[in-house]
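User: Structure please.
Assistant: Input sequence and predicted structure:
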Amino acid sequence: MESVEDLTALALHHGLTVSGARPSLRSYIGQIWSRRHFIVAFATARLTAQYSQAKLGQIWQVMTPLLNATVYYFIFGVLLDTKSGVPDFIPFLVTGVFIWTFTSSSIMAGTRAISGNIGLVRALHFPRASLPIAIALQQLQQLLFSLAALIMILLAVGEFPDVNWLLAVPALLLQAGFNTGLSMIMARLASRTPDIAQLMPFILRTWMYASGVMWSIDKVFSHHDKLPHIVLLALECNPAAVYIDLVRFALIESFTAAQLPSHVWALALFWAVLFGAGGFVYFWQAEEKYGRG
């Protein structure tokens, strides 16, 4: 009678693996690539269904960030006078809101990537990273609708296309990589601790206030020179602020006139690679645990 070791060796020799076992990272990447059409279709279907019950339908994809920008303008720009000293405050604010919404929506959707599709996870065998990746792609598709509205606002306030606008493309692609990694991190965390989804709105609100969405971080540097260096460094390296700044410098003429610090692009690439690759590996390490318990 053959030993367990002999049977195991025989199974491995013929390509058999333990049911539910985590594949190698290289194999996992190949599985995801082979399901790329499913990922795109899943993201598109979610985007179409998102506002299907609302009378205004997909218009809410644009209306939501616009309404937020209007509220922030009156509270921060008018009442708190954060627009003082900020050139072109309306495009400054609207750009910040739309780019921030891209990141915050990706994170919140990521917390529901596994728990919100638990029936699919338990019923079918497929690489689970397909879900947070599809959700991040959905948010990128939604951003394209928002960018159309953003461009119309920029044109309405006198900002006209020039070659610098092309710089928004690599900036948004880097942000998309960063968002995808964060989405995968949140998907793994929330799959085991669902309460994280309830906590995230408070964390995101705090992060938004520290990201210069409705006020200029440069004014903090010029008027609060007594702040601890670590605080100023954190504000300067804040990934959300980095991506917002890149898009502002690409689209708003008064910002392109100033010299964009050379470290900003390096930081954008660093955060995209760190969270994009790191988030993917972190999610993959728990592949065999999703849908259990």
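Residues 130-156 form the longest helix (27 residues).
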